[in-house]
Fold:
Amino acid sequence: METSELVHAVAPSPNCNDRKLPITMLVVHYTEMKPIETALARLTDPDAGVSAHYLISEEGIVTQLVSEAKRAWHAGASYWRGTKDVNSASIGIELDHPGHAGGYRDFTDVQFQALVPLIARIVKQYDIPRANVVGHSDVAPLRKIDPGELFPWDRLAEYGLCLKRPERLEQIDPFHNEGAFILALERFGYDITEGRKAIEAFERRWRPEKIEGKPDAQLGAILWHLLLERDRGTAR
Structure:
């Protein structure tokens, strides 16, 4: 297994196989298991059938579980921008965290500071578009809500490692109804099998202060701006 100066420990997981696609994505998760030893045991348990490439503790310790050359089993049934085998196309990073079920709270600063250079190296090495640095809830909105509304996407965007939330918004609602908004979500990249879940996932990522599962003028303006940036080629 390859390692780097950004990795503090290695705990090989058997839960991986060969990739079928080139790496074009990075997916951020939380473990929703405490203490971290519980998460580490599950991610390396052959009977559990789950893994990730990296696990970062709340104290900022980075543990590599699976070689980046291999397909880790972190995303499950998922979809993003036409890709159904997200595991084959992505690097998965698990953040040690109690999750919503264990007392949802802010991610620690030291954990975030360990995450940033790791993402920066991966994005540069594989030329991953900022639009493809996403949360588990983005690629699996029917099942997942992690890393959740408290993950600091805005801080990550300051480093140029993910898309920035649009600031200058049109004052009109560009979508005539909820159906039009959901179709636009599909165009942006989401699985819209269950429309309300897709809307909640979009809110959790782009307007975390208000998650209602229904579009409004502000949410529509955010999505419209993101689509415009993508079509102009400025939202890679």
Observations:
- Residues 9-158 form a domain with the Lysozyme-like fold (CATH 3.40.80.10).
- The chain has two domains: 9-158, 178-231.
- The chain has a mean pLDDT of 95.
- The chain is about 35% helix and 10% strand.
